[in-house]
Amino acid sequence: AERAERSADSPLYFLEAQTLEKLERWPEARRVAKEGIYALAQTQKPDMLRDLLRLAARADEKAGQYGQAVQMLDSAEALCGKDDALPCLEIAIHRLRLYRLAPLAEKDEIRARREEAAALFDRVSISLLTQDRRLAREVAVELGAAYPEVLRKILEQQEMVSLSAARREVLARALATWDTFASQETGTEPGFLAQVISLDPGDDIFQ
C-alpha cells in the first residue's frame, strides 16, 4: 500500500533499493530498482533514472544475469550528459568488469570500450575519483595494465606513507598477486607491473 502511494519521480525507489543493496538483499533490491525504473521512465528525471539503472545492473550482476546487466548499463549510459564524466566512468568500468566475467563482447569491442573509459578517466578529477576507494581500485584493475599512467596517478593519490604496517602488507600482497597475474598474461618475467609504471627495483612506493 505504501509503495502504491509513491509519485512516479519519488526518490524513495532509489533509497529503498540502495538500502536493500547494502543489506545484500539482492533480489529485493533488483525488484524495487526495476519498479522505480518503470515509474521514472515516465518522468523528466534522468539522473534519478540513471542511478536506478546502475543499481539494477549491480543487482543483475549478482544474480549472474550479465547480459541483462549490460543492457541496464546501456540505458544508463544513454542518460549521461557532457558534464557527467564521473558517473559515465563508473558505468564504463562496470561494463569492463562484466566483459571480463563473461564472454559478452568481441576483443575489438572491449578494446574500444577500454579506450572510452580511459578518455573518461582523463576528464575526471583524480582527487575526486580517489575519494571513492572502491571506484579507484576498480579503475586500476580494469585500466591499469593497458594504461599504466592511470595506475600511476591513482597510486600517487593514496597517501601510502600514512598507511599502517598491516595495511601496507595487505596492499603489497595485492600488488604482488596482481603483478604475478599480469606477468603471466603478458608472458613476461615477474615484475611486469613495476615495469609499466617505471618503478625501479630499488624504489620504495611508500616514500
- Fraction of residues in β-strands: under 5%
Uncertain residue segments: 201-207
Task: Based on Cα principal axes, name the global outline.
Answer: globular
Query: How far apart, in Å, are the first and last alpha carbons?
Result: 59 Å
Q: pLDDT average, as an integer?
A: 83
Order of helices and strands: HHHHHHHHHHH
**Strands, count:** 0
Binned, the helix content reads 55-70%
Q: How many DSSP helices?
A: 11
Rg result = 19 Å
Structural class estimated from helices and strands: mainly alpha
Largest sheet: none
Description:
Helices cover 68% and strands 0% of the residues. Helix 1 runs antiparallel to helix 2, helix 5 runs antiparallel to helix 6 and helix 5 packs across helix 8. The chain is an all-alpha fold and 207 residues long.
Question: What's the gist of this structure?
Answer:
With 207 residues, the chain is mainly alpha-helical. Helix content is 68%, strand content 0%.
Please describe the structure with a list of short key phrases separated by commas or semicolons.
disordered C terminus, 207 residues, mainly alpha
Any chance you could write out the topology, listing elements then pairs?
Elements lengths: L11 H11 L3 H15 L5 H17 L3 H12 L7 H17 L5 H17 L2 H4 L3 H11 L4 H9 L8 H22 L5 H5 L11
Helix pairs in contact: 1-2, 1-3, 2-3, 3-4, 4-5, 5-6, 5-8, 8-9
